[in-house]
Specification:
With 70 residues, the protein is mostly helical. The chain is built from four helices and no strands. The longest helix is centred in the middle third of the chain and has 33 residues. The radius of gyration is 22 Å and the shape is elongated.
Length: 70
């Protein structure tokens, strides 16, 4: 069996692996950058920051919307 084609394509595979790792880490950093301040604001004693008067997107609203159209 000839593995020369696979060996010749290794740089392409490693490029795809690097792109995947970069996208995952970018999404993780952006997600944490948004989630942590929102969680701190949600638990704040300040009425406007805590959004106790009603959030635009709560998990129940998102789930109802998602499951009604799928």
């Amino acid at each position: 069996m000839d593995f020369s084609l696979i060996i010749d394509s290794l740089p392409i595979y490693f490029d795809g692996l690097w792109t995947t790792v970069w996208l995952v880490l970018s999404a993780l950093i952006i997600g944490l950058g948004v989630a942590i301040p929102l969680a701190v604001a949600r638990n704040s004693a300040n009425y406007l920051l805590s959004l106790r008067h009603g959030a635009l997107f709560t998990s129940s609203v998102v789930h109802r919307y998602w499951f009604s159209f799928t």
